Amino acid sequence: NQVAFAIENARLYEEAKGHAAKLATLYETGKDITLILELDALLQLIAERSARLTGADKSLILLVDTEAKKLTKAVGFGFTPGQIESITYQEVQDGISGWVLKERTPTISEDILTDPRNTGLALQTAKKEHERGRSIAVAPLLIKGEVIGTLTVINNVGKPAFSQDDLDLVVMLSSQAAIAIENARLYEAVQQELTERKRAEEALRRERDLARALEEAAAIVSSTLDLDQVLDRILEQVSRVVPNDAANVMLVEGDRARVARWRGYERFGAEEFVSTVAFRITEVPNLQRMVESKKPMVIPDTAAYPGWVRVPEQEWLRSYAAVPIIARDEVIGFLNVDSATPGFFTWAHAETLRAFASHATAAIENARLYESERRRRAELEALHQASLHLTSSLEQQPVMEAILDYTLKVMAADDAHIFLYDGERLAFGAALWADAHQQEPYAEPRPQGLTYTVARSGERIVVPDVNGHPFFQDYPWGGAIAGLPLRIGERVVGVMNVAFEKPHAFNEHELRVLGLLADQAAIAIENARLYEAVQQELSERKRAEEALKQSEEKYRTLVDNIQDGVFIIQDAEMRFVNEAFARMCGYTVEEVVGMDFRQLVAPEDLEIVADRYHRRQAGEDVPREYEFRMLHKDGTTRIFVNMNAGLVSYQGKVASIGTVKNITARKRLEEQLLQARKMEAVGMLAGGVAHDFNNILTAIIGYSELLLREINPYDPRHSDVKEIKKAADRAAALTAQLLAFSRRQILQPTVLDLNATVANMGKMLRRLIREDIDLLTVLDPALGCVKADPAQIEQVIVNLAVNARDAMPQGGKLTIETANVVLDEDYARRHAEVQPGAYVMLAVSDTGVGMDAETLSHIFEPFFTTKEVGKGTGMGLATVYGIVKQSEGHIWVYSEPGQGTTFKIYLPRIEEALESSKRVSIPAESLQGSETILLVEDEDVVREPVRRVLSQNGYTVLEARHGGEALQVCEQHEGPIHLLVTDVVMPRMSGRELAERLASLHPGMKVLYISGYTDNAIAHRGVLEPGTAFLQKPFTPYALALKVRQVLDAPQKE
User: Fold this and answer.
1) What angle do CA 151, 155, 161 make, to 5 degrees?
2) Fewer CB within 10 Å of terminal CB in the chain, N or C?
């Protein structure tokens, strides 16, 4: 019993101790909350202390307005973010807090989910959050018998329900809290009343400031007529009563609003923008709205206003207020204030601005009336002075400059110009700028522009804003211009343009004054023109005598120094020629004068030249310009163009006068160009023929070699097949020459030293030519390099050497020469298709029989030959021509009968280093293989022998007739494909395209292209792309097997 008694005493002691601690905390809380007058902080403290005193997990204070049925404030402790904000009045009304509000009685709920007082939305929320077992204690907040809210402590699920002691603590806290809340509300009410008083005092102060500002504004308006000064002072007074970051006054000019005066924009770097900008009113919604409504405009936040026109210079502007400036029921301007703070301006600011608008109206109207009167007096004075100046001077230039000076004084324009008009063309007259400097206009008047339109129509054209105007669509200017015709009666003698750098609305008064000045200018220009005409006529009479004395000398100097030939023919006799004419004919002037003109005309053109001469003498209309051939003194002919000027009186008799021009060189160039085009056309034909023949020859050569392998050498048929193959080989050589001529031969160019090439061929060339021909080489030791196919260049030298040998049947000398040359512009003009630049020249000359002009015109044509039948194919020089052209070079031939022949080849000189010329030896190993090869060839006659050759060499061959079939074969074939052997030119899909599409299916597959010619599919201008394997048709079975083995054995490209 004593133990039990001791335990009970201890428990009671602990309870007493705990109760004392709670009372202490309650006491401290009471002291703390009396010190706090800010409502939100007070409620937060009460919520925190109530949870600590009761040991609750959470606490919640709800302030409500039961009459308005709304929750005015909710503050909690221990809640997660967002929970307090989601509480609604409906939930409070339906819950246990709602019961407490109605009953005004504190209560405990041991389980809010099963408590019958918890209904409606509160119950749904509890179920949703699984709050079964959650306990709460709630006390009403009472002030003078009126419930203003509840204080609730909450235990989470699993903790014991609150006791009556806990509820008593909550009730005590609610009593203290209600008093503190009432005190805080009273404090806020006092503070609000004080704030209202301050606002009233501030409003009264603003009214006084506004009255003073309006009074000063009125005084300013009546004190000066200078509009800029008045507007500046108004903006200054506005800024005193309407705080702003920047302000401006806009004036309406036509359909635009221009900033007339401003302040504050320099802080934002917008001073240049605001001083030059002119807004089109219809494109700015806020201005358009004020024009239509004639009411103020407030945009609290420009970012939220959909109609705000955004410009980079005003990105800072976030709040805007403005009023229209109205005179005689018309908007003549706008008073605007800007702020960088969003939401800054209110309608109160706009109403204040409205008070200043009437003063601005008066100022603008007064200034405009004053300016109008001042300008009217200035205009009258300018017109008077202009009239005086016109009567005091008859010199055109000073008169025009004076007119422009008066115009700028009257109009305050930026520049003015006068152009003179002769009925067809305009000529610059005078120009003047506002700063008094003079210069010619930046550009000539455009044929379809404003100035020409005014001149042609005789009508005034006024453009207040050139932006978007048809006359100035492509013109980088944004001002205004008026163009006025200068008329004498119905005749336009000039145009006066008056321009402004900014848009300007010309009024009728300005245009009337400009019209008067234009009329004065027209009279002045006409008077000056008449005066100058009289003076000119007098001067011309004085100069005539002197001119007559000098005319013979000038005429002689002119005619003798002119490059064209000048002649006078009278009675078929050459009565006069200049030095140039005599040189063209190879005579002296003295020799030509007195000759019958027909002695100078080539016989083949004599009839037509004489006929035209006699018909012209008879007065008939004959061509004034035509070509004819003239006989030179040495018996040769030259081609001339006769440009007959017509009939003149020469020493009292009718004579023909005209000029001639030597066009021999031009005609030669035209013939060269025609020949080059003809050679190109023949080459295209020859290339196409060679391609078709190569397919046929591939089959013939392939089958003949296969037959030769199968037929016993002693079989009589063996020799027949052998002859077939020989014939096919000769045909193949011929097609190779055709491809070379047509520039469709596949080249493998390298950097070459032509000296080394010639030196290496020395022995072979000596064997090639006869012993009675001497071979001489003249090689430039500092010769530059060229880029060409070595084998092709060797072929060129061999062909030219053979041609030279055949041209020297009695022996002679063959010279091969190299040199660095530079072909200049003059050479390029005389030789078609030649570009000026640095070249390496290779010349091959012989001392043989030479060629006449007719033979020279055909030597590069395929199958053309001067040899006997059977002695030549006519393809040697054609092949040379094709190789040179394909190597981007040029070839020219110089020859005369009995004087030998020289072929000169020019190849572009390059700066690249020489490449190794060592030939890679082919290892003597078996050409057999076991790989799988895909063969794609659209010609059956070619595909079959190729297949047989590859099969005989051990390869597995997959066949396809075209690209589409090849793709199908690849998809069906399960094993690897080691090599694709494909024709290049095929219908529907080229070999190049096929190889690219198969690369993804068989990444390691190699490719060998076979073709008669590539049509630029795998070669650019005949040069193979790097790393491309190619076998030219026709080829032998051995060549095919060798190439296939080489491609398969080559290392795989990365």
Assistant:
1) 100
2) C
